[in-house]
Each structure stands twice: as structure tokens, then as C-alpha cells.
UniProtKB/TrEMBL annotation:
InterPro entries: Kelch-typ_b-propeller. It comes from the Bacteria. Keywords: Kelch repeat, Repeat. This is Galactose oxidase. It comes from Rhizobium leguminosarum bv. trifolii.
Length: 305
């Protein structure tokens, strides 16, 4: 969410090498406007994206069209989605993808991910932070949690939280553990959550709860559950209507009193947008309502990310 609008950047379609480089925004999730048809960078699969210091930021990511340099550690930002600044061609953290990023205490925090250098893939559990997106400090080379990618992170109640994730290739791993830290250095395992181990899922803070949504696992493929908690230990599964399809790699936004989920891979890749509104007193859950939107020039093409 940036300047009171939802923003959707890049992603991939049916082929891993067919990456999208467009930028869209919407004030309501229904009507979408094309802001930029071609981003100046190519690493638009599984980058880190975040709003920080009144700018949109894109860090790291993958492009499978360049086998010599499949991942990057470049840093870009923009204040309008049209003009992008390459503020760092190569940050001090290694090129990586499938990495979560959050803001806490006025800093950006990068938590692990998949390092991809010279054709070699390495799962990471390092932690980095920055107060400006340019100068980075390594907080620890090895956090207490297992090296991983495709996980989620949330800044919640003054702490960093790391949830689930694992690895897709070459060795499949799907975790459901929950960790937190006040400083990024000292970590505490909070629980093994009741939701199944998963990768490619999303998490957010909404209505003073942490939420985990969707994902993918080798045993079930797409995962349909949505779970919430106020402490990382006790989790409740949200009942969903039959029209909700399991999905992974969706985009998740918190907009005032609503949580919005857009796009993702729901077999096939979709351009649906769903809205969840939870009353402040938790008396009931409103129904999820969806609309199919024209993300790509009015066609029915969807996207992941």
C-alpha cells in the first residue's frame, strides 16, 4: 500500500522465463491502471518489495532468462512507480531471491533467503538491516532458525517474526516453525504451528493479529488455509467459502479495516482479488468477496507475485 493505492509489480506467468515487468495500481482493488509497462530491471520474480521512507523499494530477485546471473543484490526505489532509481547496483548482502523483508524501528530487515551465485544455490539464515536502504549492517551470519527461503516475516508487537518456508529445489523442505526476535540477533522459537509446512505463502498483521495465507507443499500442492494468532502459539483457522481456491505466491495488502489478497497461482495462475473485513469486536467474519480483474491489458492472464 503506497499513497492510498494498491500496487502490483512484475511477477511471472505460465513459463518461469516469462517474467512480467509492468506496474499497476488501484485505489479500490476493482479498477486498475497501468502505471509503467516495462520496469528498467529484469529481476522481477520473487524480489523483496516494501514501502520505506515514502518510497517503493524493490531489492534482489530472480530472472531465469539469464543463467549466468540468475539472482541479484541490486536495490531500486521509486516515488511514483514510473521513474526508478538504482540506488545500489550491488548491496553488501549476496544476490538472493525468495527472501522476506520488513520494517522495524526505522530500519529495513532482510531475513535469510536463497542465495544464487555462479549457478550455486545456498539457503541462508543471515540477518541484515539498514536505516537508508543503501548502507547495510550484517546483524548475524547465522540466526538460530534453520536456513530457508520462500518463508514469510512480519514485524509484530515490536519484534521480528519468521514463519515457515524451506526449499523447493534441489531438496524439498517445508517448515511450520515460528520464531521471533527483538534485535535480529537473539532468536526464540515460539512454536511449531498447527498449520502444515509450506513455502510460497504470505503473512501480514491485520486487526492486531498475525495472519498466514495460502502457500504450497509437495504433498498437497496449493494450500488453502488462512490462519491467525495474537501470540504465535495459539492459531485459529478461518472458515472459508467454497468459492475460495487454494493458491500460492499471492500478493497481500492491509488497507484500513480490510485485508486484500490479489493474484497468485490458484491452478491456473489467477488475477482474482479477494477482500476480507473483520469487525473490530470480532463478533463475526464478513464473507469473502472476489472479482476477476484485467491485470494484463484486459486479458484474462494472471500472475504470481
Amino acid at each position: 500500500m503506497y499513497h492510498n493505492k494498491l500496487w502490483l509489480l512484475g511477477g511471472w506467468k505460465t513459463k518461469p522465463t516469462e517474467l512480467l515487468r509492468d506496474v499497476w495500481n488501484s485505489a479500490d482493488g476493482v479498477k486498475w491502471d497501468l502505471v509503467q509497462s516495462e520496469l528498467p530491471f529484469y529481476y522481477t520474480d520473487l524480489p523483496m518489495t516494501i514501502v520505506f521512507k515514502d518510497r517503493m523499494w524493490v531489492l534482489g530477485g530472480t530472472t531465469l532468462s539469464d543463467p549466468e546471473h540468475p539472482a541479484t543484490n541490486s536495490v531500486w526505489n521509486s516515488d511514483d512507480g514510473i521513474h526508478w532509481n538504482n540506488v545500489q547496483a550491488a548491496a553488501s548482502w549476496s544476490p538472493r531471491t525468495a527472501t522476506p523483508i520488513v520494517t522495524l524501528n526505522g530500519k529495513l530487515w532482510i531475513l535469510g533467503g536463497l542465495e544464487w551465485v555462479d549457478g550455486k544455490q545456498t539457503l541462508k539464515n543471515d540477518v541484515w538491516n539498514s536505516s537508508d536502504g543503501i548502507n547495510w549492517t550484517k546483524v548475524t551470519e547465522h540466526a538460530a532458525w534453520q536456513p530457508r527461503a520462500y518463508h514469510a516475516a512480519v514485524a509484530y508487537h515490536g519484534k521480528l517474526w519468521v514463519l515457515g518456508g524451506g526449499s523447493y529445489h534441489p531438496d524439498y523442505i517445508a517448515l511450520n516453525d515460528v520464531w521471533n526476535s527483538e534485535d535480529g540477533l537473539h532468536w526464540k522459537k515460539v512454536s511449531d504451528a498447527p498449520w502444515s509446512g509450506r513455502i510460497w505463502f504470505s503473512a501480514a498483521e491485520y486487526r492486531d493479529r498475525m495472519w498466514v495465507m495460502g502457500g504450497w507443499s509437495k504433498s498437497t500442492l496449493n494450500v488453502g488455509g488462512i490462519w491467525f494468532t495474537d501470540n504465535g502459539i495459539d492459531w485459529t483457522r478461518l472458515p472459508l467459502s467454497d468459492s475460495w481456491r487454494p493458491r500460492h505466491e499471492q500478493s497481500t495488502y492491509v488497507v484500513g479495516d480490510k485485508m486484500i489478497i490479489a493474484a497468485g497461482h490458484a491452478d491456473p495462475i489467477t488475477n482474482e482479488v479477494w477482500e476480507l473485513k473483520v469487525p473490530p469486536l470480532w463478533l463475526k467474519f464478513d464473507r469473502l468477496v472476489h472479482q476477476v480483474l484485467p491485470f494484463v491489458n484486459g486479458r484474462t492472464d494472471g500472475r504470481a507475485d
